[in-house]
Amino acid sequence: MDASENVSDVPTPTAVHGPVRIESDSLGTREIPADAYWGVHTSRALENFQIAKRPISVYPDLIVALASVKQAAARANLEIGVLDPHKADLIDRACQLIIDGGFHDQFVVGVMQGGAGTSTNMNANEVIANIGLELDGHAKGEYQFLHPIDDVNRSQSTNDTYPTAIKIALTFALSHLLDELALLRDSFARKGEEFRHVLKVGRTQLQDAVPMTLGQEFHGFATTLTEDHARLTETKWLLAEINLGATAIGTGITADPGYAAAACRHLNVITGLNLETAPDLIESTSDAGAFMSFSGSLKRSAIKLSKICNDLRLLSSGPQAGLGEINLPPRQAGSSIMPGKVNPVIPEVVNQIAFSVAGADVTVTMAAEGGQLQLNAFEPVIAHSLLQSITWMTQGFHTLRVNCIDGITANEERLGAMVGSSVVVITALMPHIGYSAAAALAKTALLTGGNVADLVVEANLMSREEVTKLLSPARLSGLESITTSIPVIT
């Protein structure tokens, strides 16, 4: 089975058609579709949590992380001598198939679930057990040969495997996010270089301020994203501390004293990460602070990019009655009633992603606060909120770069006209002609709409050559500094 074969909806357990097998738990028996790799515990979760209508398989990184944890546990249990070598091998091979992209469509429990993630853990245990059974020539459900809990879940609890898997999944997803963020930053930087000679009016509080170049503006966007890349990279350490081996509440009950260290060591080999066992497993099992801090970093990046998208929409507004300084690539018709209208749909969708990320951060905050005593029962919504945010941000970075930034052009003619008729350039001449003369010229330019350079020359305050030099893009934008004393013309 291919990893892309994720189910689009959570199956309804009552709608069982065709051959079935019977599985039982402490609550009774259930009919399970004969071809399903999940079992009775998953079936009950499907009945109880028809909430989001989205299975956990929508987050492939989480499925790979779960399989990685189970594989590390099997290897650790084999190493310390508490799991039969043949069973350990079956579990190891089954997990590798999942890590390689297979059987993801069998992870069917909903992303929203009660029970602190127990349904997700049970789903993983059952799928791995049934894959292992088939590898060994047995039928699905013949758990006397390989048991989902006694063997696949040996030395574990949902309370240590689930949060560990979440942190690994977020680390994997963060890697993809950082790659896309770097590409987006580079796209802005290229535009900064392309527009380095294009002079424009800078604005503060939406009012004309002083001149700058369009290149400086886009270079500033690139710098902002560079800072965000650094801050997000720093969050990796938040996810590196795991509580695998804590079992139920952090005391390590049912696990061998050597299990935690062995499991962490094997997990690092499997994932290629540098994970560490928390020094206080009781604290680590109950505390969700790392998720809250990570969420805050995601929100910071999303909101800052949303501000940039606001700027892009303002700069491209019009095209006739707005600023119209830049042209965004036209992506689709903007109206069903106004012919020819084209909207800034790509920046708009990134804005909406930021709104969602900010909302998810509130959800993570409330879930972290809602934990009680030795466990936080709300990690499923934390996982869903963070994985959805990071997935949407990654895709948002990609579509903004490919469908917008790479195709932006400057409306140089309009920018030149705006700078030429703008009184803001008079600020650059003030040290040479004095404040009073500059103020008088600014008033004249505003009343007549005349070109500032022409007005200065006509007033015999400066020569055309002097004005042209002082009003060059390099001087106006501060790229070329003035280091000599300036005699004021009286």
From TrEMBL:
Tell whether DNA-binding is among the UniProt keywords.
no
Instruction: Please give the InterPro entries that the UniProt record associates with this protein.
Output: Aspartate_Ammonia-Lyase, Fumarase/histidase_N, Fumarase_C_C, Fumarate_lyase_CS, Fumarate_lyase_fam, Fumarate_lyase_N, L-Aspartase-like
Q: Outline the extent of the Fumarate lyase N-terminal domain.
A: 28-359
UniProt entry tagged with the keyword ATP-binding = no
Assigned keywords, A-Z: Lyase
Give residue ranges for domain Fumarase C C-terminal: 426-476
**Which residue windows does the record flag with biased composition (Polar residues)?**
1-11
| PROSITE patterns documented for this protein | FUMARATE_LYASES
Q: What does the entry give for GO biological process?
A: aspartate metabolic process; tricarboxylic acid cycle
Q: What is this protein called?
A: Aspartate ammonia-lyase
- Origin organism lineage: Bacteria, Bacillati, Actinomycetota, Actinomycetes, Micrococcales
